[in-house]
Design a protein that fits this description.
The chain is an alpha+beta fold. It is 15% helix and 14% strand.
Length: 156
């Protein structure tokens, strides 16, 4: 609770244990991490990475129709322990492992309130947003503004 408002716990694993002397050599406490942004997704788990190939470049707001949010993306699979550069895509050779990683992605996405997925990048970017000041030209502020001091001006 913060000021009477319930707070949701922070997801993830703290990195504070790495900050001290020798922290860079410590084994990671992170075992699973998901990623989702603008339709692109990935999952890391115990040294394995499954990731989708972006339908559009993230820094280009494409006006092309996005692919189907579930079946329209190509998945890749990497063993990051043996291939940290993610050069050797194992998806075609290890479909069962890829399926396991995809299932884990969707489980993590559900757990962290990422579903339903949405890949309407440009449409979402350009959609009107709520705006409390739209159309207003005059603002009146009243009451005490905490944290501000006023100084009396002397004239002599």
């Amino acid at each position: 609770m913060l000021n009477g408002i319930p707070q949701r716990p922070m997801d993830g694993v703290s990195m504070a244990y790495t900050w001290g002397k020798g922290g860079a050599e410590l084994a990671s406490k992170r075992t699973t991490q998901y990623f989702e942004m603008l339709g692109n997704r990935a999952i890391y788990h115990d040294g394995w990475v499954a990731t989708t190939t972006p339908a559009t470049l993230p820094w280009e707001l494409s006006s092309a129709k996005p692919p189907d949010v579930i079946s329209g993306y190509k998945w890749e699979l990497y063993n990051a322990k043996e291939d940290p550069t993610q050069f050797d895509d194992l998806a075609a050779r290890m479909p069962d492992k890829l399926k396991q990683m995809q299932d884990l992605f969707y489980a993590e996405a559900a757990k962290h309130d990422v579903l339903p997925l949405d890949n309407t990048t440009l449409a979402r970017w350009n959609a009107p947003k709520p705006n409390l000041t739209a159309g207003r030209k005059v603002f009146t502020y009243s009451g005490i503004l905490s944290g501000f001091r006023t100084a009396a001006r002397r004239t002599s």
